[in-house]
Amino acid sequence: MCGISGVINKNNNQINIDEIKKINDTIAHRGPDDEGFYLGKNFAFGHRRLSILDLSAEGHQPMSYLERYIITYNGEVYNYLEIKNELLKDGYIFHSHTDTEVILASYDRWGEKCVEKFNGMWAFAIYDKEKNIIFCSRDRFGVKPFYYIQVKDRFVFGSEIKQLLPYTESMANKEILIDYIIAGFVDHTNKTFFDGICKLQGSHNLIYDLNSHKFEIKRYYEIEIDDVIANQSLENSINLYEKELNRSIDIRLRSDVLVGTCLSGGLDSSSIASLAAKKYNKNGGIKFNAIHAKSIEKSTDESEFAKIVANSANLNLNIVEPQTKDFMDYINEVIYAQEEPFGGPSIFMQYFVMQKAKEIGCKVMLDGQGGDETLLGYERYYPAIYIDIFKKDGFLAALKGMKDSNKNNSKMNIKKVAIYVFGTLISSLRKLEYKRRTSFMKKYKNNFGFLNIISKSYLSIFDLQKQEIEYFNLPALLRFEDKNSMRHSIETRLPFLDYQTLHVALSINSKHKIKGGWSKYILRVIVNKILPKSIVWRKNKLGFNAPDNVWLKSIENNMKISIEKSEILPNLCDMDKLLSNFNSLNQNLKWRLYNVSVWEKIYNVKIS
């Protein structure tokens, strides 16, 4: 796990070492253990290393292989041992115990298709001397970041946006800002909040030709479902998913440094923590570390659940309890670390968890991201779920499912589900919400980006999950996690997002994933053998929720003052109308407007 940098000179002159070093130093926090550079004829690579596998100097990057390839790489290919054994049989020789060298040998053996064999998270660039190209890739779901910018005489890429800012005037992307302010959307396209700075999306490769200085972007992976798995019985589905989840956790425990886990007390993190602890304690004899962020607000405090899990799984539980002053003191720092505006104060809770991980020396942390998106954990999935059941098993089966949801979901009732299923509530809510949130917005002739997304059909549960994974939900969560963890030189690993585990989860019949009204039923059955029933069969879910009411109330005056001083917002909003109705605005909307106002000051962002 590291940070990468790259600069290509379109004038074909060599890059000065000071230029690549400057943007590489910007991300020193991503790799405090080592740094390295490679200067090509008309390009340069930089690297910051966070040593996780093979802590020796053999893991130094940029790494060369066969005197033909040079790589700068950030991530972990968890199945590197299996691939290495395959390559050894083909006669390949290795000089280190790193996954980096396995990537290089794989590229030599299979070319661009090598990424199809990788199970993990990555963002890398490989210079191929013979072809005179730079082959770049980002993992299937975009766990690790890859930003790039193309200007008059440079193509620049890196792990963070701040590396690219010296090459631009820091102009705001108006379309992305509007999507964020109105709908709260972030990370839903390849564009960023900074005009001209893009991100290579998950499941894509970028091939840059150093002769013509043109590049092409290719998709190498599509999320698909398996009809054979979809037709399995409940028992077979449970056994299949249990096997895949355990395999996913096993390979994510491969590390030469201390591994721990995030623990909110909810089903997903509790499942990962308990399953991993059994394996970790057995193999290493060291008590597995878990870190929990306790809310100071009683209604959002899950610490008692975290304690129950810790006692049950024999975890060494570390609890952090950020106070209101901590939140206020770290506003600028967290917004700086995130680089782009975000949804709300819950991001701060995750930040403090990673801060604690660094304090106790846990360089690697497991986390439960992806459980809800793959196993139907969100309430908003219910309409598509029951339509799916209706199509496959008939009206009575769908009706029974709705009734069961009324019994076993604390936030759901039969009337609400019924309205959801017929789609009228979703449609009317979106129209109403759009009208309310745009009442103070200036009118634009162009279509807002998010409107193209939310106009798509929601009737297919698979299509809905795919959109959540690729656009709506997961990309934002992964960005928050990466920026918060790497700010503290921490690597996070996500077992639910193993692509094979995800494939099985999405393919399993919906009626097995939502059964008896219980969401994520299969996971509940699997961990019912090792976790207390009070955890397994909880009806409510929070997940590192911040005490929003307390924290945002404490800065309400500051929010209004900051918004009033913004130079960007007057270009988008009717400020007189906005400020006169400020007290009646939705709390989340206030935060978004405030976030923009702070972000623009920190990064000196302008708008056309």
How would you characterize the overall build of this protein?
- With 608 residues, this protein is of the alpha+beta class.
- The strands form three sheets. It has a six-stranded antiparallel β-sheet with strand order 2-3-1-9-8-10, covered by helices on one side. A six-stranded antiparallel β-sheet has the order 4-5-6-7-11-12.
- It is globular, with a radius of gyration of 24 Å.
- It starts with a strand and ends in a 6-residue tail after the last helix.
- About 3% of the residues have low confidence.
- Belongs to the asparagine synthetase family.
- It comes from Campylobacter hyointestinalis subsp. hyointestinalis.
- It catalyses: L-aspartate + L-glutamine + ATP + H2O = L-asparagine + L-glutamate + AMP + diphosphate + H(+).
- InterPro entries: Asn_synth_AEB, Asn_synthase, ASN_synthetase/amidase, AsnB_N, GATase_2_dom, Ntn_hydrolases_N, Rossmann-like_a/b/a_fold.
- Low-pLDDT windows of residues: 422-435, 453-458
Helical residue percent band: 40-55%
The count of strands amounts to 17
Mean pLDDT: 91
The main sheet orders its strands as 2-3-1-9-8-10
Strand content: 15-25%
CA gyration radius, whole angstroms: 24 Å
Q: What profile does the largest beta sheet have?
A: 6 strands, antiparallel
Cα shape: globular
Enzyme class: ligase
Keywords: Amino-acid biosynthesis, Asparagine biosynthesis, ATP-binding, Glutamine amidotransferase, Ligase, Nucleotide-binding
Catalytic activity: L-aspartate + L-glutamine + ATP + H2O = L-asparagine + L-glutamate + AMP + diphosphate + H(+)
Family: Belongs to the asparagine synthetase family.
